[in-house]
Amino acid sequence: MAMLRLEQLSQHPILRPLDVSLDAGKVVGIIGPNGAGKSTLMRTIAGLLTPTGGQVFVNETPVQKLSSRQRAHHIAYLPQQLPDDIPYTVQEFVEMGRYSHQRVTFRASERGTPAVRRAIAQMGLEELVDTPLQHVSGGERQRAGIARCLAQESPVQLLDEPIASLDVYYQLDIMTQLRKMAQAGHLILIAIHHLEFALRFCDDLLVIRNGDFYDTGPVADVFTSKMVRDVFHIDATLFVDPFLNHSRLSFSPLDSET
Description:
Strand order of the largest sheet: 6-7-8-3-9-10
InterPro entries: AAA+_ATPase, ABC_transporter-like_ATP-bd, ABC_transporter-like_CS, P-loop_NTPase
Low-confidence stretches: none
Protein name: ABC transporter ATP-binding protein
Number of domains: 1
Keywords: ATP-binding, Nucleotide-binding, Translocase, Transport
Shape: globular
Structural class: alpha/beta
Distance between the termini: 45 Å
Number of helices: 9
CATH architecture: 3-Layer(aba) Sandwich
Strand content: 25-35%
Mean pLDDT: 91
Largest sheet: 6 strands, mixed
GO molecular function, one term: ATP binding
CATH class: Alpha Beta
CATH superfamily: P-loop containing nucleotide triphosphate hydrolases
């Protein structure tokens, strides 16, 4: 049984119908140029937008039939950008990830506290726990958002461009941690512009071009020079790094005469 299933899912006029089943234990990269519909797709899967056609199923339950608390129990969602005026400390904000596990308040229960501490440590935020989110940098705010998703412990994690505002150390660290989460049984969906990271860290890809679903499947099948040319309008060559022993990407603009 697929952990997440999209059945003729569409969001007119932005996204055209898609059928896809996604299994636990994978990092699935959603790639495509700016404006292709990646964020709209993620918000629809998260239940924040009502699809104009089709349905989203999580563990064979329609997402639109779940309450917000029930959705949070199944799906964690990080938007592309968090607001600048969130009136909570880093600690309080991460604790909100335990919302679906609480009966009354956002405050982490005794059961949830280890998950919050672990998420804060994973994101390197220990020294910022009492700092208001309004006073941290954009990268630190993004790491707090990821920590909140980790603390939520939902089986499906939807992360919209989570590494875009981070330096390369945290980009690599977070992608490595997401791989470990997938290996532990989560399904990770990540919208990502960094094509080399998609090539290196993702198991499957879902490629969107102008609202159409260009292709989906294992990285080895989907990530080709033709795909990069068709979708991103650049020439690309894939090769294996002789030192790191993983796939790399060399690219350049298309010849203006082609």
